[in-house]
Every structure is written in structure tokens, then in C-alpha cells.
Design brief:
By secondary structure, the chain is α/β, with parallel strands linked by helices. The chain has 2 domains: 288 residues, Zn peptidases (Aminopeptidase, 3-Layer(aba) Sandwich), CATH 3.40.630.10; 86 residues, Urease, subunit C, domain 1 (Roll), CATH 2.30.40.10. 27% of the residues lie in helices and 27% in strands. The chain contains 9 helices and 17 strands. The strands form 4 sheets. Strands 1-2-4-3-5-9-7-8 form an 8-stranded mixed β-sheet, sandwiched between helices. A hairpin with a 2-residue loop joins strand 12 and strand 13. GO terms for molecular function: metallocarboxypeptidase activity; zinc ion binding.
């Protein structure tokens, strides 16, 4: 699969109805009329009786189950999936072999109530990715029923991650991250885990040409309550995808393009017959670390009489307001010397830092702008 060709075709298949971070059932339903009714199924309902949909593509013998927005506020992969769907619909030569070799069942929004509220959890305040054993929630039961009926050969568990993650203990942001989940407490390298690792190794090899040193690997600590660990435990190669941060891309439109490439490359590898032989390349990917804040203001004075210089770390809260996601800067840390990195860094050069003329900076404060010696600096993305 050719990286240059995928980048060239992306603009023509990007779904214009799906933009930004807030993606709900009402958004994806507007896209359904582009596709034959025969491929779209209503497979269940959520706690609040919103429909859960699946789409089916291809007619090959290799069965692949993909799901997105298990966490309602992780929407980047949903956008990328619909871009893939447009490519499938167009009968592109790029994906012809995938659809001939594979049958895909895709759940674009597993947690529609969480998507509506822009929350990780569902309407019963349950994290669906910790409900794989109890199956206490209707959304969890829907996914398991699809799994049992479809009997997939591979699973793609599509997520999004916060801006705090780095690829190793470096200043390289983890724009995409992957994991071949453990399937037992010993984290044994079983054949199905190795196959998932080999696929991720091929993804990494391609994507390093696009985002060198910006790919991370999640820790594989075992938790059978997690869906990926459970499906891996069932003996099915399961891949976790995490859409992260790209410079100045808080709407995650660049990361959407990268997820589009990563999803297609994963399907391509499977369709061409991946084996466990090359699994060791997986371990060349550095583990994720938490080395970033959204903003760090360095070398600031908090008042005229204080001779100490401090660093102020700021992290955005993502808040749903009138159908749009607003990024609210909040003070996360005030320290003498912060060893982490900021996606944006401001050097105060020893100047006095204030929120307004008479305010005091405290942890947890919202802080839309700062004043540096009467210079107003916005902290919004």
C-alpha cells in the first residue's frame, strides 16, 4: 500500500459532514444516504435508547471487526472510518484487494449516549472498556453479540488519547499509539499476540515516513475487564489504535488523515497474509510516557517581591458548549523547574505573570490569557 497514493486520495474521500471533535449519531446518520441500505444495520440500542449501527463491507473469507467511540469523546477514528467507507464505496483499486479478501463489520459509534454528552463513560456512568467481563451495559452486550455472531478473525479497537502522551521519555509527541493487548497475567507472547504485533510493526514502518518518532506503544499490563484483553484472551489477534496529538491540531483533522492511513494499512497487511514471523519490530516502538502539557509558561515571576522564577503548566479541559467543544485552559502545576514539555511554550524571561491586574494564580484556575508586563497573551488553541 502506497503512502503517497493514500495521501493524494484522502482529500477526495474526506467526509465533509464530520468535522471537529464532537461527533454523534446525528452526524453519522447524515452520511448514511451515501451507502446502500443493505450494508447498514441497527444492531442494538444504548441506555437512553439511541440506536447503535454497524456497516458491512467486502465479501472475503477473512472477517475483521472494528469499533470506534467506545468512549464517547474519542471521535477521531470515527471520522477516519467514514473516510475509509467513501474509499470502499468508490470502488477504488487501492482497496479492491481488501474487500475481495476480507469482510468488515464496523461499529462507528458504540457509545452514542457518551458521544452525545461528549463523555468517556456511558449514560450509566460506566466505562465500557472496563465492562468486558460483567457485560452490565446494553452497549457492551451489543458488542459481544456482534462478536459472537460474526466470529471475527481480527479485531480493531479504535480509541483516542490525551495530549499528555509522548513517544518514550522524549519531546516527541505520541501522535498515534498502538498496542497488542495482553491476554493473560503473564503477558505471554502467544501466536495471536505476535500476529497483532507484526501488523503494528508494518503500520509503524509505513507511518515513520509520515510522522517520524511520533508513534508510541502502550503498556501491556493485563486487565481482563478491558475489551481488547478479553478478545485477545479468546485467541483473536486484537489491535488497539489510539489517535493522539499533532502540532496545533486540536480538532484532530491531521490525525484523522493519519488514522485513515493506519486503518487502511492494517487491513492491507491482513489481506496480504501477515504472519507472526516479524513480530519483533513491534518492540522497536517506544512505550508511551506522560511528558507533555498543552502549554508551559517558563521563567515567570508571580509578584514583584518574589525573586524565584517558576514554570506554570496549563492543560486544556474539553467542554461541550452549544454543540461545540471548547478548550478551557486550566493551571495544572506551578513549579520551580518543570521537566516536561509544552505543545506551546512561552518564555516569560523573568517578567511578572498575572491573569488580570489583581488576580493570583492558583492550581485549577481557568486562565484564558495571561499578562506579561501589560502584554496580553491568549492561551486558547
Amino acid at each position: 500500500m502506497n503512502l503517497e497514493l493514500l495521501n493524494a486520495v484522502f482529500a477526495s474521500v474526506k467526509t465533509p459532514e464530520l468535522l471537529g471533535r464532537y461527533i454523534t449519531n446525528s452526524h453519522i446518520e447524515k452520511c448514511f444516504n451515501k451507502f446502500p441500505e443493505s450494508i447498514i444495520s441497527r444492531i442494538g440500542i444504548s441506555v437512553e435508547e439511541r440506536p447503535i449501527y454497524s456497516l458491512k463491507f467486502g465479501n472475503g473469507p477473512i472477517k475483521i471487526l472494528l469499533w470506534s467511540q467506545m468512549h464517547g469523546n474519542e471521535s477521531t477514528s470515527t471520522k477516519a472510518l467514514f473516510d475509509c467507507f467513501n474509499l470502499f464505496k468508490n470502488g477504488s483499486k487501492i482497496t479492491e484487494h481488501i474487500l475481495n479478501k476480507c469482510t468488515l463489520v464496523v461499529i462507528p459509534i458504540l457509545n452514542p449516549d457518551g458521544a452525545e454528552r461528549y463523555t468517556r463513560i456511558n449514560a450509566n456512568l460506566i466505562d465500557l472498556n472496563r465492562d468486558a467481563q460483567d457485560l452490565s451495559q446494553p452497549e457492551s452486550k451489543v458488542l459481544r453479540e456482534v462478536y459472537n455472531n460474526f466470529k471475527p478473525d481480527f479485531c480493531f479497537n479504535l480509541h483516542g488519547q490525551r495530549t499528555i502522551f509522548s513517544a518514550g521519555e522524549t519531546n516527541n509527541v505520541a501522535t498515534l499509539s498502538f498496542l497488542s493487548p495482553a491476554q493473560d497475567k503473564e503477558r505471554l507472547l502467544t501466536p495471536n499476540r505476535k500476529v497483532a504485533m507484526a501488523i503494528i510493526g508494518e503500520l509503524n514502518a509505513m507511518l515513520q515516513n509520515e510522522i517520524p518518532n511520533n508513534i508510541g506503544r502502550y503498556d501491556d499490563g493485563f486487565n481482563l475487564n478491558c475489551v481488547g484483553d478479553t478478545f485477545q484472551n479468546f485467541g483473536v489477534p486484537t489491535l488497539l489504535y489510539e489517535a493522539g496529538h499533532f502540532a496545533n491540531d486540536y480538532d484532530r483533522e491531521e490525525v484523522r488523515r493519519l488514522m485513515f492511513i493506519a486503518i487502511l494499512k492494517g487491513l492491507d497487511s491482513i489481506s496480504k497474509g501477515v504472519t507472526e514471523v516479524n513480530y519483533k519490530a513491534y518492540f522497536d516502538i517506544p512505550e508511551n510516557e506522560k511528558c507533555f502539557y498543552d502549554i508551559i509558561i517558563r521563567n515567570a515571576k508571580l509578584n514583584e517581591s518574589d525573586s524565584n522564577l517558576v514554570d506554570i503548566a496549563i492543560q486544556y479541559d474539553e467542554v461541550l458548549i452549544d454543540g461545540e467543544i471548547q478548550f478551557t485552559p486550566k493551571i495544572s502545576e506551578i513549579s520551580k523547574s518543570n521537566s516536561k514539555f509544552g505543545h506551546k511554550e512561552i518564555n516569560a524571561n523573568g517578567r511578572i505573570l498575572q491573569m488580570t491586574e489583581n488576580s493570583v494564580l492558583n492550581l485549577g484556575n481557568e486562565i484564558d490569557f495571561v499578562m506579561l508586563n501589560n502584554e496580553r497573551i491568549s492561551l486558547k488553541p
